Fold each of these.
Amino acid sequence: MRIIVIGGVARSLIGFRGPLLRAMVELGHEVIACAPDAPPEIHARLTEIGVRYQHIPLARAGLNPLRDARTLMALRRLFLVERPDRVLAYTAKPVIYACLAARWAGTTPVHGMITGLGYAFGTDSRRQELVGRIVRALYRQALKRSAGVFFQNPDDRSLFDRLMLVPDEVPVTLINGSGVDLAWYQPKPLPPEPAFLLVARLITEKGVREYFESARQLKALYPKARFMLVGALDENPTSVKKDELDRWQVDGVIEYLGRLEDVRPAFTVARVYVLPSYREGTPRTTLEAMATGRPVITTDAPGCRETVVDGENGLLVPVKDVVALKNAMERFILEPELA
């Protein structure tokens, strides 16, 4: 069977889908992995596991009609040439344009995986609401004849049902996220000092500014506490800007570790993992943190709340609530036995 897997970021083909791709190959399938601009090391790692890489032009953020038309046409050509037996696409643009391209090409329908809703489903600005209306209309058209839709949490599924984005005849499956490799993420001893970590794209919706503000207040009270941040600046409209990130570091509040290919060393030096996200599919980083034996502070938001039993393996706080987040973090400083 020939299977095409399409993602919006090349590194995610290995970081998030590597075990899945490897399993497909081991079952005897021919696998083609598609994403924009894979760096040589990702290309090489895909080749190592027997997966063929195919570049597709795709701008992950924004709604530029000309760029998106190029994506749609490139996917149609890919489907016509390769004639896949199955197609799996994940994240918004790959799902939408792969579904539309498959209908246009008359090839096999696409399975879509909704891994989170992101910027397009926010309501913080008129621009965001406009983008949301466009994206919802595109989803509604794209999913009409999809082979099936995977959701990673019940809230996203309920929202798509309420907005009538998935027709009744399209199969829907609820899965518990993408999982993590427990042989790779193993429990490690907790450091003795209070040390907090956030791993995320540096965008508003991940709660990075709430994390900074909580860290700023706590650093004034507990100078020995550490507040680490891992992740890259992003092209998303709500991304933290470089000068803002620089100020956080100059102030001595945030230890910025950059974007890491391997986040395990960061988890090792952290005592508590923090993800103040506004909404997720199923956040992979909280699973990684728990696999390494770290308690988690996250939000009582779709996707996030599924990973934490409040008071058992972590704490839940309201979305966008700096006071509650700061108080939860402070509990782990004052009551180290909680970890």
Note: The CA atoms of residues 311 and 338 lie 9 Å apart.
Amino acid sequence: MSHRSREIRLRTRPEGLPAASDFEFVEVDVPDPDAGQVLVRNEWMSVDPYMRGRMRDEPSYADPWAVGAVMQGGAVGRVVASGDDAFAGGDLVSSNLGWRDLALAPAEAFTKLDPDVENVADYLGVLGMPGHTAYVGLLDLGQPREGETVFVSAAAGAVGSAVGQIAKLRGCRVIGSAGSPEKTAWLVDDLGFDAAIDYRSEDLEAALAEHAPDGIDVYFDNVGHDHLQAALNHMNAHGRVVACGSIAGYNAAEPQPGPNNLSHIVRKRLRVQGFIVSDHADRRSAFLADMRRWLAEGEVRSRQTVVEGLERAPQAFLGLFDGSNVGKMVVRIASE
């Protein structure tokens, strides 16, 4: 028996900002699972900035997506049929097989999830890769201490909002940057940030001088470029820069100039470290234990921007680059 499914493929490699024409929406037939395979109907999928890098045909920490192949990304769904004893029909699972209705793969491609959560979409956000990224990046690399000042760029996104809340739990003063009054208000009023900067309407250098008069001890960088330059100017001696992302340059057709003040790294004896969360799988159990507790106790809050329908997944992805999302951007593929 076969099952009709829809999927989105990479049609062409974008030059600059991706367009709807770079994606292809197709229908395919998916068979029942063979022995050792599992068939899952996806209910939710994630779109994330890192996906832009995988659309490029260049060396990176992960292979580029092939033109004409179905795209990949985090997804949560329910088992339809199983050829493996570890999974049964109706099980809630996660995988990296998003951008499609039905995912058929070997059983090891899926992870069984606890369905007893308030919002299963959190498994793509604060309980998923973005939360794990925030946890490892801040605690293991940033190593914040009580009373220190932490600055987070793209603070209203999935990673940044988690970083700021974890830093508050560590007793830090937290400053975030975001791109609208709605976002900055959410950071301060709902998430407990000490200050938030609207980088679209405020001078970033002047705002950091105002909100971090004693300097910055940890900068969690999701943006790069002007944010990195401003942060370096205000870093304290022996500060830590956690290089998580550089979304300001993801769609640049040509390499952009870097900061012209890198001498601060030497003079201030800064530690600058990049990382990829997949290198820190050994921290996943500790992350989940802490994050589940923080969510249950109301010490960490989550928020999603939900786009309805698989066919609108490219639109959701493009929205990451114009600031359409508050919190985690997710696509609801099917009703739970």
Note: Residues 129-142 form the longest helix (14 residues).
